[in-house]
């Protein structure tokens, strides 16, 4: 289940850091805790993008100048999605960085037709390696063209699918086909222009700040349809519940893939700051 949450931006020109997933992760977690549902307190099978809108860059970060800002949010549990949106829309407004946002509406993305071969783009960085305290292994660069890159993602995907608890051991065993093929032309052009597709990002886990390497590039994934659907809905790699590893289909028109899911009744009142 995948939706686009649309906010009214009340203070045009306000900004967030270039990488603001950690701010969004704090807000999402705050909304979950606010609802008080013990069932979902530690639920982690959700994923989200960065904020989308008309932006300009400054030293401070991304300044938003559009009337509305969008967040793509996805999860693997319909009940959790309804719970999260209910709690979010109970809030009169919220602050993310310097942005003051008012929840306005939600659009549901139509479910793609998944095949054994799918081409994706990364709309948030994909993290391969989980960090350990006082250890730089999570920042190690692994070339996307290598088998190691694909193998690490395969192992993390199967472990996450197993922990979700909806796949049998027989099904998990049958998902042995998994190969990620990076777009070589894209990587070549990025390198020729001395740009980066892999950067170091901060992530906070149990009040500890870590640094991880995240990758952003298009690729083709060869895997079972069930695996494709799992990754599209729940993200790829590590720290998906902190806004990493969100995928989107390549070469599609996103404006044609939604239906109305929820419209808010705008309430006046005190803001809720997270």
Order of helices and strands, N to C?
Answer: EEHEEEEHEEEEHHEHEEEHEE
Average pLDDT figure: 90
Count of the domains: 2
Main beta sheet, described? 6 strands, antiparallel
Q: What overall geometry do the principal axes of the alpha carbons give?
A: globular
CATH hierarchy class name of the largest domain: Alpha Beta
Continuous helix count: 6
Poorly predicted sequence stretches spanning 5 or more consecutive residues: 264-274
Distance between the termini: 25 Å
Query: Level of helix content?
Result: 25-40%
CATH architecture of the largest domain: 2-Layer Sandwich
Find the count of extended strands (DSSP E, 2+ residues): 16
Radius of gyration equals 19 Å
- Strand fraction equals 25-35%
| SS-derived structural category | alpha+beta
In the CATH hierarchy, the third-tier topology of the largest domain is known as Alpha-Beta Plaits
Question: How would you name the oligomeric state of the polypeptide chains in this document?
Answer: single chain
Please describe the topology of this protein:
Elements: E1 2-9, E2 15-16, H1 21-35, E3 46-48, E4 55-57, E5 62-64, E6 68-75, H2 78-89, E7 94-96, E8 99-109, E9 117-122, E10 126-127, H3 147-164, H4 169-174, E11 178-182, H5 184-192, E12 198-205, E13 208-215, E14 219-223, H6 225-234, E15 247-249, E16 258-263
Antiparallel strand pairs: 1-6, 1-8, 2-5, 3-6, 4-5, 7-8, 8-16, 9-14, 9-15, 10-13, 11-14, 12-13
């Amino acid at each position: 289940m995948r939706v686009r949450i649309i906010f009214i931006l009340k203070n045009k020109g306000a900004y967030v850091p270039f990488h603001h997933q950690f701010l969004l992760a704090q807000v999402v977690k705050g909304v979950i805790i606010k609802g008080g549902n013990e069932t979902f307190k530690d639920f982690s099978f959700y994923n989200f993008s960065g904020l989308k809108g008309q932006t300009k860059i400054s030293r401070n970060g991304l300044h938003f100048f559009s009337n509305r800002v969008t967040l793509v949010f996805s999860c693997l549990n319909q009940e959790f999605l309804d719970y999260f949106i209910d709690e979010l829309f109970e809030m009169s407004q919220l602050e993310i960085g310097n942005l003051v946002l008012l929840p306005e509406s939600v659009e549901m993305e139509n479910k793609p037709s998944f095949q054994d071969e799918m081409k994706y783009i990364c709309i948030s960085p994909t993290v391969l390696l989980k960090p350990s305290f006082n250890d730089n292994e999570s920042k190690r660069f692994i070339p996307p063209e290598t088998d190691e890159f694909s193998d690490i993602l395969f192992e993390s995907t199967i472990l996450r699918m197993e922990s979700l608890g909806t796949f049998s051991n027989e099904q998990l065993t049958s998902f042995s086909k998994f190969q990620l093929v990076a777009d070589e032309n894209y990587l070549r052009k990025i390198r020729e222009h001395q740009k980066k597709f892999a950067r170091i990002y901060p992530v906070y886990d149990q009040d500890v700040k870590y640094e991880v390497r995240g990758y952003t590039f298009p690729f083709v994934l060869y895997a079972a349809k069930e695996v494709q659907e799992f990754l599209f809905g729940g993200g790829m790699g590590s720290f998906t519940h902190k806004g990493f590893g969100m995928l989107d289909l390549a070469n599609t028109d996103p404006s044609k893939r939604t239906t109305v899911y929820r419209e808010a009744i705008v309430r006046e009142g005190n803001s809720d700051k997270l």
